[in-house]
Predict the structure.
Amino acid sequence: MLMTTTASNADSRISTRRKLFLNPYGPELGDVPQQKMGREEVEEIVKTGTTTIGLSTSEGVVLATDMRASLGGRFIASKDVQKVEQVHPTAAVTMCGSVGGAQAFIRSLKAETSLYEVRRGKEMSVKALATLAGNFLRSNWTMFLISPILGGVDKGGNQVYSLDIGGAVMLDNYVATGSGMQLAYGVLEDIYEEGMTNKEAATVAAHAIKSASQRDTASGDGMCLAVITEDGVDIKGHKDFKAFL
């Protein structure tokens, strides 16, 4: 029996081949869903407030956030939220912005760091992780809608990166993001010093988070603190600041 090829079947095969050539390695984690939202919807999600801080120290990195989740900064949805997540054996990120977007972003980073380690037999560098995070944000900004802080320790040093919604990646000694960032920066500019220990940095972070919580309605309900060293990531929640101030 002779098989005939119709024009529609040929077009279908050509289309499939083109997709494979465009991305010969994918899909690895599945396609990222594209969301189409109006300007008002985007602005409303971005307004979701918080205060997050990243500090580089002589011993590692300290990340700190408040523990309040709010709806547009007007209604408190939760008073016990962990806004810092480990995404690498010696690195973690803070969450600032859309909660759903932050969760999807963290899942993607965890998956990619695990795949990298399995394929290459070594851990991804913190600098490479920051670049990957920036690429995620730039290519899927309408999905993630977040401005996280990435902190990590490796052979390249103790590093703190601020990332914005457009995918910019900036290395700095101290960083603050969120609706309480202006209040936090006032404290950091005044008392942060290079070369301080993790314990001293935790005290500085507590002062900054407390200052933001007193005036920013979207921040409050304690502090979530992550201490990162070459040995790993330690994350703990604190409902008050007595242990630090």
Notes: Confidence is low (pLDDT under 50) at residues 1-5, 16-35, 41-47.
